[in-house]
């Protein structure tokens, strides 16, 4: 089982399903929400148990983001009409057992860092 929580501990999540597609998002919205870049993995929505006060916000017409209503931690992302939900790898309790597969929205990355891990990059 993989478990995680927000910074203040008000929101917890868990899944028994092996997460897929671990990636790093460099889009402007993820950078502004997280303060840098956002690493996540995804599972089918019914396979992720979420407890606690999550506020869902839509910054675009394409997706919603779940944040802790207490501490503001950016924990979840789900595209409209998608059956999978992404969760923040940085919020996982303990080791994830995952390896990143790719970087997405690299055209929006900040000018203060380089991506040099050799993983595929998608603009």
UniProtKB/TrEMBL annotation:
Keywords: Lyase, Metal-binding, Zinc. The keyword Amino-acid biosynthesis does not apply. Transmembrane segments: none annotated. The keyword Lyase applies. Pfam families: GFA (PF04828). One of its GO terms (molecular function) is metal ion binding. Residues 2-114 form the CENP-V/GFA domain. It comes from the Bacteria. Belongs to the Gfa family. This is Uncharacterized conserved protein.
